[in-house]
Amino acid sequence: MAKLIIDKKDYGIHAFVVQLRSLENHCPVPGIEIGDIGKKHAYEAIDNGFVKFNHVRIPRNNMLMRFAQVLPNGEFKQLGNEIVMYACMLIMRGILCMFASLLHSISTTIAIRYSCVRRQTADPNGFEPQIIDYQTQQYRLLPGLATTYANFFATINFRNILNSFKKRSSNFSQIDPNELAKLHALSSGIKAMVFDECLKFGQINRLCCGGHGYSASSGLQPVIQEADAGCTYEGDNIVLYLQTARYLLKAIQKGFSPHLYLDNLSEIKASELFKRFEHYILLFDRLYENQIGEISNRMISLMEDQKLDRFEAWNSSSVVLVETAKIYICLFIIYMNLNGIYEHQKIECAENQIILEELFELYLTYGIVEKFPNHFLKLGVIDGQEMTVHQNRLYELLKKIRQNAVCLVDAFGWSDSNLSSSLGVYDGNVYEKLFQFAKSSLLNRNAADHTFKKLAKPYILAKSKL
Question: Which residues of the chain have pLDDT under 50?
Answer without folding.
Answer: none
